[in-house]
């Protein structure tokens, strides 16, 4: 079993040039509490990510157009 990154609690990808939809596989980061993808060209976030029980902060401000973002 691949456990790389499984204990990750904070992932900050602010202003890194990301575009498109964030992959559902981010939902496998079961300990993730903060996901910052603000200031990118994100077009969608998988419901699997949004419904993560551990996720307390989802920062997707600026350049985001999706019904899944609550920011």
General description of the model:
The protein has 71 residues and is mainly β. 6% of the residues lie in helices and 25% in strands. The protein has one helix at 47-50; strands spanning 10-12, 19-22, 34-36, 41-45, 57-59. It has a 3-stranded parallel β-sheet with strand order 1-3-5, with no helix packed on it. It is globular, with a radius of gyration of 11 Å.
Instruction: Summarize the biggest pleated sheet.
Output: 3 strands, parallel
Radius of gyration, in Å, reads 11 Å
Average pLDDT:
80
Shape summary: globular
Number-wise, the strands total 5
N- to C-terminal distance = 34 Å
Estimate percent helicity: under 10%
Low-confidence stretches: 64-68
Number of helices: 1
**How does the helix and strand content classify structurally?**
mainly beta
Strand content: 25-35%
Walk across the major sheet and give the strand order: 1-3-5
The string of secondary-structure elements, in order, is EEEEHE
List keywords for this structure.
two-stranded parallel sheet, globular, 1 helix, 71 residues, 3-stranded parallel sheet, 5 strands, single chain
What's this entry about, in short?
The chain is mainly beta.
Indicate the topology.
Blueprint: E1 10-12, E2 19-22, E3 34-36, E4 41-45, H1 47-50, E5 57-59
Parallel strand pairs: 1-3, 2-4, 3-5
């Amino acid at each position: 079993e691949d456990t790389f990154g499984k204990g990750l609690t904070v992932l900050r990808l602010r202003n890194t040039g990301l575009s498109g939809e964030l992959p559902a596989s981010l939902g496998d980061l079961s300990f993730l509490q903060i996901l910052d993808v603000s200031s990118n060209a994100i077009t969608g976030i998988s419901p699997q990510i949004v419904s993560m029980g551990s996720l307390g902060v989802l920062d997707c401000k600026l350049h985001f157009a999706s019904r899944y973002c609550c920011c």
